[in-house]
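Aim 2 progress update. The chain analyzed this quarter is reproduced below.
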Amino acid sequence: MEENTETNRQFECALDLMCRLPPQNVEENIVKLLEIVPDLTDDLLASVDQPLKIRTDEKSGLDYLISDYNRDGDSYSYYEGGLSSVYFWEGDDSLACAVLIKKVNGNNARSKGAWDSIHVLDIEERGRQAYYKLTTTIMLYTVSNQGEVGSMNLSGSLTRQDERDGPIDDISSHITNIGKFIEDMEFKLRGSIQDVYFCKTKDIVNDLRSTQTLSKLKKHRDIQGELFSQLKGRQ
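Predicted structure tokens:
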């Protein structure tokens, strides 16, 4: 009993640590972590989402995304849709779906970044309605080096769950329902990321650092003081 409690505690601590580390280094970090706690290998690999990788089909020349959801042994199937891939499979009494989206910005030598979206749905048909349970993980990073401004590495990840019902007239209704559900979830998470990462980081940077020189700041304060004195003299 005590051994199970200790294992659970290690597992929770490992997950918490992985959530705090940059998502672009997940593979490297999880390998190091598993060297410390090898008994957690299966649980961690099943629980920690990793950034999506791009491969090219040898026959068609098209790019596709690889993940646990389209892996069969050491090979991967793919959906011919560029950098977004969709996979369906059947469960015991339900249908499951994974929608993978990857956006990479690496054309600028002074900045690079990536956005990985992993959407996993459980689908249960209930007569003329379908129940959808969506688990979404967003991983992103942006790295820039702007010369005098300096370098920046901003990264993070969010995981959220939601569920809803949708009408179904035929099998194609699932496409409409799933597409709308994922679109709403991504819009919601983009807003959360904007507030949690970018706005908060901007506030911190503005409080700690100024791009203006000390002479410009002094001149600005002198002008403010002069205006304040003139306004005070008119009272």
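The longest strand covers residues 129-145. DSSP finds five helices and nine strands in the chain. These observations will guide the mutagenesis experiments scheduled for the next reporting period.
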